[in-house]
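Exercise 7.
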Amino acid sequence: MPIESFTVWFTGLSGAGKSTLARALGKHLETLSIRHEVLDGDELRRTICKDLGFTKDDRDENVRRIAAAAQELNSQNVTAIVAAIAPYQDARLKARHACGPRFAEVFVDCPFETLLERDTKGFYRRAQAGEIEHFTGVSDPYERPQDPEIYLNSHAQPEQQSLALVLRRLEELGYLALLK
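Solution. The predicted structure, written as tokens, is:
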């Protein structure tokens, strides 16, 4: 029986560890010979979403485009691994519906102080000083997922522990049959 594709959507504030964990999951799926693509929100902002700003409407459109790309990958039996802030619950719900029933939302959380420590480019401090408008978690809201399939605290859990939790939950959901 062929492996069915699925979508894993990592959401959380900038610096929480979404992209790091998405890439780690991608590397693991590669070892299992599972076709996949990582759709990184920052990279997509430079390509298919470069015409969008950071208003709520533009952020919702950004999520819609990423979900459409994930849906297209799934239709080709390619697993989509998304790392995108996706700050609004309604847009994430629409992404879930667009991608279909084999969808796992992963909320990557950590304390704000940790985000400040990880912010080597100073975006949070600049946003707090009013120098950056529409910065999620400072001047724009982030609506925490209400019922994610997977919750990770990237401050308390090292990357490998977080990855192990993701893999275990994907197995429980029936998306992966882990090699024993």
